[in-house]
């Protein structure tokens, strides 16, 4: 494996994303909650720029003791990367498509050294 420099950690401030072109593949690097993630910037649904999407908690239904729906909330533990084209959701940790766990984004190992961010290709 080869490490490829993507940018500085400070470039990811305020929800910014870093992108690197690997020829016919673009990789997006994003940060959330202090962790770094790197995925091919191509939604498995229809090729949209998934790494440009929002990060949201999974919607959880609130059900009371009688089994009645009492609303919904966003999870703080299961986070999703949402493709901006058609709102297809992916588990931020694994890259698995939430609607079909057999499908997933191509993930890259990402490393941080000094102020630099590197992916393994």
Report the uncertain regions. Answer: none
In DSSP terms (H or I, runs of 4 or more residues), the helix count works out at 0
Q: What portion of the residues fall into strands of 2 or more residues?
A: over 45%
Assign the CATH topology.
Answer: Rieske Iron-sulfur Protein
Task: Please name the fourth-level CATH homologous superfamily.
Answer: Rieske [2Fe-2S] iron-sulphur domain
Give the overall shape, derived from the CA principal axes: elongated
Description:
The protein has no helices and nine strands. It has 121 residues and is mostly beta strands. β3 (26-32) and β4 (35-40) form a beta hairpin. Strands 1-9-8 form a three-stranded antiparallel sheet, with no helix packed on it. Strands 2-3-4 form a three-stranded antiparallel sheet, with no helix packed on it. It has one domain (3-120): Rieske Iron-sulfur Protein (3-layer Sandwich). The chain is elongated. The mean pLDDT is 95. It has strands spanning 3-8, 18-21, 26-32, 35-40, 54-63, 69-82, 89-91, 110-113, 116-120.
């Amino acid at each position: 494996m080869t490490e490829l420099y993507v940018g500085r950690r400070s470039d990811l401030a305020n929800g910014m994303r870093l992108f690197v072109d690997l020829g016919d593949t673009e990789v997006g690097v994003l940060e959330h909650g202090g962790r770094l993630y790197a995925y091919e910037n191509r939604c498995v649904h229809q090729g949209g720029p998934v790494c440009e999407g929002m990060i949201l908690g999974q919607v959880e239904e609130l059900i009371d003791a009688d089994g009645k729906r009492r609303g919904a909330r966003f999870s703080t533990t299961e986070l999703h990367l949402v493709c901006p084209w058609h709102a297809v959701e992916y588990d931020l940790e694994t890259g698995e498509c939430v609607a079909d766990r057999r499908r997933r984004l191509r993930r890259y190992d990402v490393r941080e050294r000094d102020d630099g961010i590197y992916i393994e290709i």
